[in-house]
């Protein structure tokens, strides 16, 4: 196979161990923990060209490249990261990590609790977006990065990018907040709760300690993913791809799979339940629910964002109804009211919320143009 000049190629995950206790927003403390991460590109002499990629609900550290030559798929944002791509690894040093509570190597519910010698399970503490940012800052310290050229994320990742500018305002030059929101609506919290209930009421859940029972709450996790996946797509997108197509071409007058969209959702649910941890799903959705930087400012988002010193790019997508353009505009208005520098783009797309992972041409051009200016600032 001819090497792709625009790929970061084969990559190897790294593990950072931390022995300094981390006190979480809940009041719980993690005495020891580890973060799994990957890096792409080279850090320049003054460590000014580093970019942090923050993952969304089901994401992880494997953002670009492949772990093995025969991998069927590359990292989850490989279309955006690599030599000559918008997040250009010939100019930037890019870091992706798996957050605390994750199930891809960082300390989480499926990890061994050193105090018991058993998986953490239900005893793993709830984590929040600010908790993740504190842990990410410690990783930045370990890597010798005092200030990020940019922190970038979509959806829940965008919330982390936003939080970085508030928790560590002097450590972020640019924040790219994509397909995100300043807090969840009641409807979004409701979707998350239904997904959690599917898991919590699965007989194989065992109060979160299913590891000890040798089971997986597969049915609940499958349903949670199916529900979530519906909200990530647009009606137009689903209609164009599946419409009312029948697998057999005729009604079967039963309750098995008949429509192509049913087949697709069940496939997605089955695949997800094979590799994702149910306790991690619960934690990630709770982190989404709790995110609300304006809460400490009597609901005044402009006052909250007044702490920021970074420049912002806020981007939304026309068919994203999970985190609609109106939610991004709330962030933009608050930044303007706080007299902060912000650029905004609402991008035409049929892909719904998942558009931030796609390659719609206007989106790619926007990212390339903005990050080209960031590169010039750091002399990359």
From TrEMBL:
Domain of life: Bacteria
Enzyme nomenclature, EC number: 2.3.1.46
InterPro entries found in the cross-reference section: AB_hydrolase_1, AB_hydrolase_fold, HAT_MetX-like
Family: Belongs to the AB hydrolase superfamily. MetX family.
Molecular functions (GO terms): homoserine O-acetyltransferase activity; homoserine O-succinyltransferase activity
Domain named AB hydrolase-1: residues: 49-343
Reactions it catalyzes: L-homoserine + succinyl-CoA = O-succinyl-L-homoserine + CoA
Binding residues for substrate: 225, 354
Name of the featured protein: Homoserine O-succinyltransferase
The organism of origin for this protein: Rivihabitans pingtungensis
Family annotation (Pfam families): Abhydrolase_1
Keywords, in A-Z order: Acyltransferase, Amino-acid biosynthesis, Cytoplasm, Methionine biosynthesis, Transferase
GO CC terms, sorted: cytoplasm
Known pathway: Amino-acid biosynthesis; L-methionine biosynthesis via de novo pathway; O-succinyl-L-homoserine from L-homoserine: step 1/1
PANTHER family on file: HOMOSERINE O-ACETYLTRANSFERASE
Matches recorded under NCBIfam families: homoserO_Ac_trn, PRK00175.1
Gene name in the database record: metXS
Organism lineage string: Bacteria, Pseudomonadati, Pseudomonadota, Betaproteobacteria, Neisseriales
Function as written in the Swiss-Prot or TrEMBL entry: Transfers a succinyl group from succinyl-CoA to L-homoserine, forming succinyl-L-homoserine.
């Amino acid at each position: 196979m001819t090497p792709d000049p625009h790929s970061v190629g084969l990559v190897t995950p790294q593990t950072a161990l931390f022995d300094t206790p981390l006190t979480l927003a809940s009041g719980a403390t993690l005495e020891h923990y580890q973060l799994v991460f990957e890096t792409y590109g080279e850090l320049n002499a003054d460590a000014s060209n580093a970019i942090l990629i923050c993952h969304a609900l089901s994401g992880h550290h494997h953002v670009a490249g492949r772990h093995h030559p025969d991998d069927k798929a590359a990292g989850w944002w490989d279309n955006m990261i690599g030599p000559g791509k918008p997040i250009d690894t010939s100019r930037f040093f890019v870091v992706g990590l798996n957050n605390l509570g994750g199930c891809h190597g960082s300390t989480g519910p499926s990890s061994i609790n050193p105090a018991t010698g058993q998986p953490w399970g239900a005893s793993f503490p709830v984590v929040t977006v600010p908790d993740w940012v504190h842990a990410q800052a410690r990783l930045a310290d370990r890597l010798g990065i005092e200030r990020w050229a940019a922190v970038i994320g979509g959806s829940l990742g965008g919330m982390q990018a936003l939080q970085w500018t508030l928790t560590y305002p002097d450590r972020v030059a640019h924040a790219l907040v994509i397909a995100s929101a300043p807090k969840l609506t009641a409807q979004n919290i409701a979707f998350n709760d239904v997904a959690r209930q599917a898991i919590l009421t699965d007989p194989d859940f065992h109060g979160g300690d299913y590891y000890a029972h040798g089971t997986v709450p597969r049915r609940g996790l499958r349903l949670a993913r199916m529900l979530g996946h519906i909200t990530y797509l647009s009606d137009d997108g689903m209609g164009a791809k599946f419409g009312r197509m029948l697998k057999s071409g005729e009604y079967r007058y039963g309750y098995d799979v008949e429509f192509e969209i049913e087949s697709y959702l069940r496939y997605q649910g089955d695949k997800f339940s094979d590799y994702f941890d149910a306790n991690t799903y619960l934690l990630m959705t709770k982190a989404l629910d709790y995110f609300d930087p304006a809460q400490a400012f009597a609901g005044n988002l402009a006052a909250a964002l007044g702490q920021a010193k970074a420049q912002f790019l806020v981007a939304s997508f026309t068919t994203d109804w999970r985190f609609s353009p109106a939610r991004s505009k709330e962030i933009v208005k608050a930044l303007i009211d706080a007299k902060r520098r912000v650029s905004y783009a609402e991008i035409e797309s049929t892909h719904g919320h998942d558009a931030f992972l796609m390659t719609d041409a206007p989106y790619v051009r926007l990212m390339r143009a903005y990050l080209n200016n960031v590169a010039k600032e750091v002399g990359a």
